[in-house]
Design brief:
Helix content: 55-70%
Number of strands: 0
Shape: flat
Strand content: under 5%
Radius of gyration: 18 Å
Number of domains: 2
Length: 119
């Protein structure tokens, strides 16, 4: 394994560990949507709207963090396959600065911009 791959692996593992720690601190770890729903009782008529809002925010955060965790796992798999740092759309090398800023990046800046505009 090259020193560059080792550095990338360390960054990915560190970012994944930080995400998991944040998830543990905020919600007790990986939590299913059902478990989150049971934590937010929406039957209280006086606080119904607030309860629904809190529940929906918790759902969104949980789904975002689960997707982010999946992105780190996928990046580690790309690293093992020798594809890490290669844009999945155009095949160009993703700049090191982008990988440093977001180690799980799938696309170069140009392709990511196009992707976001079309979604």
């Amino acid at each position: 394994m090259t020193s560059s791959n080792t550095l990338h692996r360390e960054r990915l593992l560190q970012a994944r560990a930080q995400l998991l720690q944040r998830m543990v601190e905020e919600r007790g770890g990986l939590v299913s949507r059902v478990d989150l729903a049971t934590r937010h009782d929406v039957r209280d008529v006086e606080n119904h709207a607030q309860s629904i809002t809190e529940r929906d925010e918790a759902f969104a955060m949980n789904e975002h963090e689960t997707a982010e965790l999946g992105a780190f796992e996928a990046a580690l798999a790309r690293l093992d396959a020798g594809l890490y740092g290669e844009c999945q759309d155009c095949g160009a090398t993703i700049p090191e600065a982008r990988l440093t800023a977001y180690p799980a990046a799938l696309r170069c800046i140009g392709c990511q911009t196009v992707f976001e505009k079309t979604r």
